[in-house]
């Protein structure tokens, strides 16, 4: 099973060039803004880089919550897995991170063309891309959250999370943090009170759950 995932993931890296081409330049403006910010404000050396889609981007008090860990927020709203892969040099490798916290796949879920297998394989391909340059840096992958706006895709989300949890369990210096069950009600229903009116982005109570789940896995600076 692991060999199959690896083979398909490698294919996704090379065969996905057409997908990358479609994404090329989509977030150039956002990335330029981030790089301009870096010139204006001193970025900690070897920080923990939080990277991914809007659930990272909108974590407004991230640096305050994890202040002692020297973290930076490099999320991009609306990003899919291909976007983070395309901008990995600017969003991840540029900072020589001490640790990486990754949240991707959420925006891929509602796309009809993205199956469980393609989401899993693209995530694994991104992981391989990171490991090719940063083989020993601790990495935390946050499982896809149960957004009420995605409730009709519940089985898809659960299948992706299960497959990725199994994959990451076999990888060194890698931790899968499963926030999905932590954000459900006791009866298994989606908790709308954890989300903004769009039922996709979280309110502070939702982020507090993430904070508690992640805190034990973050690496403090020496």
TrEMBL record:
Residues 1-21 form the signal peptide. It comes from the Bacteria. One of its GO terms (molecular function) is phosphatidylcholine lysophospholipase activity. Residues 60-208 form the SGNH hydrolase-type esterase domain. SUPFAM superfamilies: SGNH hydrolase. InterPro entries: Ester_Hydrolysis_Enzymes, SGNH_hydro, SGNH_hydro_sf. Keywords: Signal. Pfam families: Lipase_GDSL_2. PANTHER family: SGNH HYDROLASE-TYPE ESTERASE DOMAIN-CONTAINING PROTEIN, THIOESTERASE 1/PROTEASE 1/LYSOPHOSPHOLIPASE L1. This is Lysophospholipase L1-like esterase. It comes from Mucilaginibacter yixingensis.
């Amino acid at each position: 099973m692991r060999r199959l995932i690896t083979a398909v993931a490698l294919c996704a890296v090379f065969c996905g060039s057409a997908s990358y081409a479609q994404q090329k330049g989509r977030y150039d403006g956002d990335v330029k803004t981030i790089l301009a910010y870096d010139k204006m404000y001193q970025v900690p050396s070897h920080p923990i880089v939080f990277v991914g889609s809007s659930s990272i981007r909108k974590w407004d008090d991230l640096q305050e919550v994890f202040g002692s860990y020297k973290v930076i927020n490099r999320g991009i709203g609306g990003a899919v897995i291909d976007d983070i892969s395309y901008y990995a040099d600017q969003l991840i490798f540029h900072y020589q991170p001490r640790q990486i916290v990754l949240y991707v796949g959420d925006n891929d879920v509602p796309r009809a063309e993205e199956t469980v297998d393609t989401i899993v394989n693209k995530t694994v391909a991104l992981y391989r891309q990171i490991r090719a340059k940063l083989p020993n840096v601790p990495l935390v992958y946050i499982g896809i959250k149960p957004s009420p706006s995605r409730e009709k895709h519940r089985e898809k989300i659960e299948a992706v999370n299960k497959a990725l949890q199994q994959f990451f369990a076999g990888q060194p210096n890698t931790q899968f943090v499963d926030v999905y069950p932590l954000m459900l009600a006791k009866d298994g229903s989606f908790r709308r009170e954890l989300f903004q009116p769009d039922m996709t982005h979280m309110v502070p109570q939702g982020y507090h759950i993430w904070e508690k789940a992640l805190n034990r896995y973050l690496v403090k600076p020496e």
